[in-house]
Amino acid sequence: MRVVVTGAAGFIGGQVTDALSHAGHEVLAVDAPGRALCPDAARPGWARLAGRPGVTRIEADLALDDLAGLVEADAIVHLAGRPGVRSSWGAGRALAERDNVTATRRLLEACAGRPARLRPRVVVASSSSVYGSAGLRPNREDDALDPASPYAVSKVEVERLTRQAARDGLRTVLLRYFSVYGPRQRPDMAFHRFVEAVLDGRPLPVFGDGRRSRSFTHVGDVAAATLAAVAAELPPGIAINVGHPEPVRVRAAIELLTGVLGVPAEIRSETPVAGDATRTWADPGRAARLLGWTAQTALAGGLADQISWHRGLRVHEEVRAG
After folding, report:
1. Structure pTM?
2. Which of 91, 98, 149, 237 is most buried, judged by most C-beta within 10 A?
3. Quick check: 206 and 266 in contact, CB under 8 A?
């Protein structure tokens, strides 16, 4: 199968590209690493795809460039976009609109421009942020959406465009990712910041009091769900939660992390982020029924995996410097 992955230099995109390549698919990896939220992290991710068997890299800006040639595929996994609740306020609002909404609209239009029999299946990344904060039960896909940040609003619009494309004849599916962590996580994300702080001997920078809870979901599990969505026959336009079913408080996650590292937790509280959910909580029942997927990685093991990656980076940097 020929599969296009947009955002292939990114945290999730790189893992999905690897998984597709290992499964024997022909992959067209698309990104504009210089425009990433964290270019210094995206560029190494882009470089590591060079020479990978079955992977061809193309640099393209989905909001500007001609996309007709990029959509000649059996499937597209659309992971490119502007992530982050915190960075979407102020000047970031326009960037979220451009890189999430405009880019997705142009990609879907390019797919719709193909002859009907040649149109690819399109798997589109959404986010648990479209729900806002979870209440007394986990969020299900038919819950009302309550976006509380410009980023979340942009993802709601991405979902609207994706459902409209389904009504117009495209085979689309929306995956709502919940609090993804693991190796290659972006430097702006919580566990990356926590691990680096501990390894540097600094206090952990925590937004708020650490009582917020998340359905932390390992990137390996997210990649597995995404590949399952590429292969499955699904109702067009359907949304599917991809998240661990057990929310964990940030403070409890920090205790697990520092326990793995064998150090006491020292926390530096920072001002809470506007629009940040107090709780994300996934009901993964639809993913289990339609994709045969459930999260396999417990948080303790997943954090050990991420810590190992951070330590490996440091060893590599020491070797280069020495």
Report:
1. 0.96
2. 149
3. no
Give the separation between CA 176 and CA 183, rounded to whole angstroms.
Answer: 20
Q: Would you call 52 exposed, middle or buried from its count of C-beta atoms within 10 A (0-12, 13-18, 19+)?
A: middle
Query: CATH topology for 2-178+218-244+282-296?
Result: Rossmann fold (3.40.50)
**What does the alpha-carbon distance between residue 28 and residue 113 come to, in Å, rounded to a whole number?**
19
pLDDT for the residue 20? 98
pLDDT higher than 90, residue 315:
no
Q: Mind listing the pLDDT tens digit for each residue in 91-142?
A: 999 999 999 999 999 999 999 999 999 999 999 999 999 999 999 999 999 9
The predicted-structure confidence for 64-78, as pLDDT tens digits, reads as follows 999 999 999 999 999
Strands 213-214 and 248-249: antiparallel
Task: Indicate which residues carry an active-site annotation.
Answer: 151
Which of left, alpha, beta for 24 (phi over 0: left; psi -120 to 50: alpha)?
left
Q: What is the rounded CA–CA span in Å between residue 146 and residue 292?
A: 28
Of 296, 283, 303, whose CA–CA distance to 242 is shortest?
283
Helix, strand, coil percent content, the chain, rounded in steps of 5: 45, 20, 40
Contact present, 318 and 272 (Cβ < 8 Å)? no
